[in-house]
Amino acid sequence: MLPSASSLLAIVSTLMVLTQAVKFDLPAALSDRTDTTQRCLSQFVAKDTQVLITVNTGEGYNQRIDLEVSQDGPVPNVYTRKRDLQHSFANAFDTISEGLVTMCFTNTLDEGFVESSLYSRWVEVDMNIGAEAMDYKLLAKSEKLDPLELELRKLEKVVQEIVEEMNYLKTREALMRDTNESTNERVKWFSIGSILTLVCLGFWQIAYLRHYFRRKRLID
């Protein structure tokens, strides 16, 4: 059952409020120890969805920040590899499959320097997915939309994505229900088979013991 228009607007408003960048300090390490200080952020993204990643970095003497954006799945995909991020970087791509899109940052300290807590750079990451990743300025310019029409187009796109997500969840729920019903059916027949096997084994034991005792003349 689809929600009402007021419910959809409430969800849209909540999503727009919760959308914000993530900022953190990334300590520097020598090249042979960068894996120990690697910082990764992940977000589940559906297939054929536009993603826009914007990264801002602070100043850092003798430090190099590298970025890799990948997605897990049957065949892992690497969308971006950026070496030595400077100040700001933006990258947009469309996902090839569904799964976790992971952004991993490493801060490498130049050779000849000693690791210290003083060596770190701040990183600010903003990940926009679907409707949030669209270039609405370009859309407004190309279609000559006024501000109100542009806001309505934004809401239309977000509501459309919410409905698609609900349909996707409905499909997953149906698949899960079918899997549960199939599993229950298999467990039922396995239980029946186990009971019949135990009953047959019990009758065979009784018949064997009766034959054994008669042979030993313990019973008539």
Write the layout of secondary structure elements.
Layout: H1 5-18, E1 22-27, E2 39-45, E3 50-57, E4 63-71, E5 77-82, E6 88-94, E7 99-109, E8 120-129, H2 136-143, H3 147-215
Antiparallel strand pairs: 1-8, 2-7, 3-6, 3-8, 4-5, 4-7
Structure description:
- With 220 residues, the chain is an alpha+beta fold.
- The protein folds into 2 domains: 5-133, Jelly Rolls (Sandwich); 149-220.
- The protein has helices at residues 5-18, 136-143, 147-215; strands at 22-27, 39-45, 50-57, 63-71, 77-82, 88-94, 99-109, 120-129.
- Strand 4 (63-71) and strand 5 form a beta hairpin.
- It is elongated.
- The N and C termini lie far apart (73 Å).
- Mean pLDDT is 82; it is low at 1-19.
